[in-house]
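G., before I forget:
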Amino acid sequence: MAPDSGLRSSMGWLHTWAGVVLGSLLLTVFWSGSLVVFDREIDRWMQPATRLAAAPAVISLDRLVVPHAQRLAGAAPRWSITLPDRRTPVIQLEYQDAQGVSTRRFIDPYSGELLPDEGSWAATGFLFPFHYSLHLRWRDLGYWLVGIAGMGMLTLLASGVVIHRKLIREFFTFRRHKSTQRATLDLHNLTGIVALPFHFLISLSGLIIFFAIYFPAVIERLYPNGSSQFTAQAFGSYTRPAAGEPAALASLDAMRSRARNAWQGDEPYMLRVWYPGDSQGYVEVRRTFARQISMNVDRMTFDSSNAALLLDHRTAPIAGIQRFFSGLHFVQFEHWTLRWLYYLGGLCGCVMIATGMLFWAGVRRNRHLHQGMRGVNLVDAICVCSCTGLILATLGFFIANRVLPAEASWLGNKRAALEGWTFFLVWAAALLHALRYGTRAWSGQLMAIYIAAPMAVLLNWLSTGDHLLRSLQQGLYAVAGMDLMLLLLALLALGTARRLARGVAHA
Amino acid sequence: MCEPVRHWPFDRPWQRHTALTLRVVTAVAGGYACTVALSSTVALSLVLLADMARSDAVLLASMLGFIIYLALLLWCFAEPRLWRVGLLIPLSMTLDAGLQFGLTNI
């Protein structure tokens, strides 16, 4: 098992060590990624004020949104409106508040009423950025760590295929009743093979989304005067400075209908007003991608005071390929079957990564303890922390969302930030617990999941009145789905804990 | 094992560890530097030879960059002779110098 003794063994060495070093990072990215497939559904659960019926087909932005935007974000350098769709029943208004903090408010598309700020970043605001940046903003550290995980995943998949030559036979092998160790490896191979193309493409497309972060030097080389010129050419972004003279905003609805005509009936999904109230302001109108995989960058830019068309950009062919890979990763198209398959593929990846780490530790535990090596204890603790600990952290995040009072504030952190802190603190506590109790921490944390998950369901009922039967009856499928998944998680945790207890009793 | 076992060029543990560390660092950092140099070369060639728009060339070359990096990483661990892996560094420096020359003179 060394890099200079034949292809299979050198790939085996690479697979083993890249897996151990990157395993918990990969599991974090895969778990958050799987959840984020249903980010807007989780948002409904975490932001009960947005649990509304499907939005009407025709919405006037001039009447419903512009007054709110001018009142809330009149002084902001820009604000944007995202229109409702099948997964989001509300109009979304985003802007920077007076302190420069980016803020998101929701508007009821029927009444035009501004919904109360519930103080939660929810899944789209917390879990989604966590998936690609780990909330480590310092010098893009989080992006780079996730990038390393992505390249690591590609390397692991390629080396895994080399070492598991008998892919087909291994696919049909699952010796569930043999030793735990044997079953762990079989499960690793099964989940690895069944979703191999998915895992490869999801990692590659994730990297391709952030090509500008990972390969800035390529852009710098060909654009020595700065990357903004590249962004303008590749993605059609328009820019001009503000004039400092006031001017009224022209009709956004008229711009939408002009864009709709130019796009053969495709609706705009988002409008962004730059320098609102300025005579040199402009409005960017973006084309929907609900019915295609590619997240096109078709956009029309209008003058904000006289509505003159400034730029009509259509996605260029190669930019289209980059946007296709992005769309493949972001799953923003409307397709429920595929959405569930993405979710299952992601969870399959979690099982593959977790069983790989468990197998590594299982093979070495007794030998290393015998030799007096302590490293295996650390790997055991990291395994526990990145499997059950991560799930507990997520549940802590959901529970904090239901129990924190609206005006909660601690050490200068507002409610939304406190929810995020709960996630990280529960995770840290899980690591300490795992370091203290070693492999015995598994059953403790599994039982904690068994208690915490139904508690989240119960708290949702108590705080909003939407119990499972009612949300099913009223067609709140996002809320019902979230509750059902939490209950399923509790059952899985209980089953695993019992199986572990049996295994320990037999041994 | 019946197949002939290739021995390490250096047999002492500290020598083995040094060789391994060198290989990992070269694979990760040298592989990245080489990928950037290769991708930039590909992008510039696409502009000069295939008359592609600059932005499209950058996009295509960057996307290929991930595949290039993957291939280089795997090769760095599959190649038994460490000195060959080490060639990545002079290779990327040469490419970079060539690119600099090309960009300033064309």
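The mean pLDDT of chain A is 92. Residues 374-507 of chain A form one domain.

More on Monday.
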